[in-house]
Amino acid sequence: MKRGTMTRVMVTGVLAALFSGLASAHHSTAMFDWGQEKVLEGTVTKWQWTNPHTFIWVTVKGPTGAAKQYGLEGMSPSWLARRGWNGRTLATDDKVKIAYFPLRDGRPGGFFVRVTLPDGTVLQGLPGAPSGPPPAPAPAAAPKAAP
Amino acid sequence: MKPSNKTVALAAAVALVAALAGCSKDGAKPASGAAASAAAPAAGENPYAALAKLPDWSGVWEPAMFARANAPRPSGPPAPPKFTPRYAAMYAAYQEKNKSTPGLNFVSPVANCVPPGVPGSMQQPYPIEFLFTPGRVTIAIETYSMVRRIYTDGSPLEAEPDPSYQGTSVGHWEGDTLVVETAGILPETSPINGILGHSDKMKVVERMRLTDPDSLEIKTTVEDPEVFTEPYTSTFQYARHRDWKIREYVCAQNNHDFVDEKGRAGFSLDHKPGEKQ
């Protein structure tokens, strides 16, 4: 099975198990292409340690050099704080890699799944998502390759 | 859980002392099992003293389903609900959506930061805590910082309570089980995931008890003759954390999700007014 499909099935299955029988979660995930991970590399503009969702605003340099700002919402501090995250986990100007489920409508945004910090630490942002970074397209020793 | 002989003896002793002290509280439900909360205290008695006889529900309770993705359900997967035709059609549409679209597919005004109603407020992913005070059990819920007040002083449930998100609740102890009855839940709320709306006849009964020293089970029965052809029961488990603290959760703090006037889910990339870009 392709990795993307495997992620989709795994995350859907876990979420179905987590949320089945509930009267309601905060909101549906209909706006996101749930389970289909994309990865971006960029610089943190702002890390919002807020409810109902944490938020990472991150600037990504496009292939032609033009910068685009992405807005990624994540799990609440209610979930993240009990798993090692806090209001200082990310800071403005941090260079990060973020795996996320993108907005279906193509706008620069989505729901963050996993974050690789400047020091290489990988943090899970979503219950049940596969741990570990997405497969790198080039060996670590090589000069910086495109994601 | 049957009350132990010691509990029964204590209950009898308390009742006797109250009678001898000329306690004249009327309307109190006869004490069954744990005698703590229904009867008013005798003159001069500290009303908090009776609370010591209640089971230990201290600490902070985490919904077990969210502690571990594969947490076992003791009673197996819930039986499917039985709906009246109108609501069966709504539920079928929701199930179709679940088959075709991964993720969470229930769209409701909760995305706009209004509370989910009951039993939804008891089925959120974050912890809860129980506060015992004379004649009352108060449930503080981390998600959306909600509070439910359950009157255990023997007051009957009003015939037509003013509708509200948390409804109006009364409760009584049967042994170490707290039985809560709730009515007057705002009819635009959700009785079960996948269904939006219900009638003013909706009633919820919850039976809450410890199943082991650090596990709490809540068996919830929802009935509404306009929605269900028979009452629907589901079970929710909680795990105790004595060292956890309930966090604040203000939904309106930084909400980028919404549901529009046509009931469609949306996501805003706008910054909040005054927020630095």
Could you explain the architecture of this structure?
- The complex is a heterodimer of chains A (147) and B (277).
- Residues 12-24 and 131-147 of chain A have low confidence and may be disordered.
- By secondary structure, chain A is an alpha+beta fold.
- The two termini of chain A are 21 Å apart.
- Chain A contains 2 helices and 6 strands.
- With 277 residues, chain B is α+β, with helices and mostly antiparallel strands.
- Chain B has helices at residues 5-20, 64-67, 85-100; strands spanning 60-63, 128-133, 136-141, 146-151, 168-174, 177-183, 203-212, 215-223, 232-241, 257-259, 265-267.
- A 9-stranded mixed sheet of chain B has the order 1-9-8-7-6-5-4-3-2. In chain B, strands 10-11 form a two-stranded antiparallel ribbon.
- In chain B, 37% of the residues are buried.
- The model of chain B is unreliable at 21-35 (pLDDT under 50).
- The chains are: A alpha+beta (147), B alpha+beta (277).
- Chains A and B meet through helix 1, strand 1 and helix 2 of A and strand 11 of B.
List keywords for this structure.
heterodimer; A: 147 residues; alpha+beta; OB fold (Dihydrolipoamide Acetyltransferase, E2P); 5-stranded mixed beta barrel; 2 helices; disordered C terminus; B: 277 residues; 9-stranded mixed beta sheet; 13% helix; globular
